[in-house]
């Protein structure tokens, strides 16, 4: 198991919360800052990172280091910790990277039945410490943690739920203006997807959590689904499914 981390380009970045913004009913944006983020690599629009969500204080084994800790090393430390107090690992997608400011943004969907990451993000305060595992540009492997490889495809099918909305938004923004296709988003509250936009040839369809609705449009900001699915805060329904496995031309 350790072997697969020997060549991992991921390291543990030391960050602090620099800003917290409620973006929409379901999303909280965490702006994370730290000098080590100068080496953070975003290799693709769906770049996978992990947050090590603290359970209270971080154990002393995770005391701050001057240099980012390689994944092989921090994983071993993490595994050796007792369950109580061990940071919880959750996957996310940075929604913005600002190297000059040594900052990244992470848009966290706060689930109706919140787990440790949703809970932490919803209560996050400026100055709080958060450890982030992500690729270090100095370690190469420029495809690591990226699943969106469209190649020369001119037609795409994108399927996402709210948890994949940051990746979907970035992928749509990366598409050429001639790209055609469909983006299907399962969303409990359309306000969470209010700014979703893509090339004119890509129809963006919002689906209520229970079943896909037929409303569709091309390239414009989403409109609300029919009233029976109208905007509401979190409902158990929106947490019904975990995202499916990604297939070719599909993201999550
Ligand atoms: C590669 C990748 C990138 C991701 N990027 C983002 C991102 O940028 N922003 C973001 O908000 N999330 C993202 N996610 C999803 C995120 O990892 C999960 O939502 C995470 O499990 C939430 O952690 P938690 O501790 O809040 O909840 P958990 O303890 O994991 O679960 C608590 C509750 O949330 C529900 N739940 C958990 N995950 C999902 C899901 N994906 N869909 C529906 N219900 C769910 C569970 O059913 C449970 O009710 C990403 C996942 C992957 C694999």
TrEMBL record:
Transmembrane segments: none annotated. Residues 215-252 are annotated as: Disordered. This is FAD-binding FR-type domain-containing protein. It comes from the Bacteria. Residues 10-142 form the FAD-binding FR-type domain. InterPro entries: FAD-bd_FR_type, FNR_nucleotide-bd, Riboflavin_synthase-like_b-brl, SIP_FAD-bd, SIP_fam, SIP_rossman_dom.
């Amino acid at each position: 198991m350790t072997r697969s981390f020997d060549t991992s380009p991921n390291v543990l970045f030391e960050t602090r919360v620099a800003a917290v913004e409620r973006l929409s009913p379901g999303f909280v944006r965490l702006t994370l800052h730290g000098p080590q983020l100068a080496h953070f690599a975003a290799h693709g629009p769906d770049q996978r990172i992990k947050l090590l969500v603290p359970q209270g204080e971080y154990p002393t084994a995770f005391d701050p280091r001057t240099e980012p800790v390689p994944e092989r090393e921090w994983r071993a430390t993490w595994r050796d910790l007792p369950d109580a107090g061990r940071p919880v690992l959750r996957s996310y997608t940075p929604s913005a990277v600002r190297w000059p400011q040594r900052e990244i943004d992470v848009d966290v969907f706060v689930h109706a039945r919140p787990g440790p990451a949703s809970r932490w993000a919803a209560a996050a305060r400026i100055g709080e410490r958060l450890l982030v595992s992500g690729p270090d540009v100095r370690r190469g492997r420029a495809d690591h943690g990226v699943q969106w490889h469209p190649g020369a495809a001119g037609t795409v099918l994108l399927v996402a739920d709210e948890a994949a909305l940051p990746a979907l938004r970035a992928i749509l923004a990366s598409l050429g203006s001639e790209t055609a296709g469909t983006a299907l988003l399962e969303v409990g509250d359309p306000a969470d997807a209010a700014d979703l936009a893509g090339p004119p040839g890509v129809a963006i369809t919002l689906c209520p959590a229970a079943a896909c609705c037929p409303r569709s449009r091309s390239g414009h900001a989403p409109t609300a689904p029919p009233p029976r699915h109208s905007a509401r805060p979190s409902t158990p329904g929106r947490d019904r499914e975990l995202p499916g496995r990604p297939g070719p031309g599909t993201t999550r």
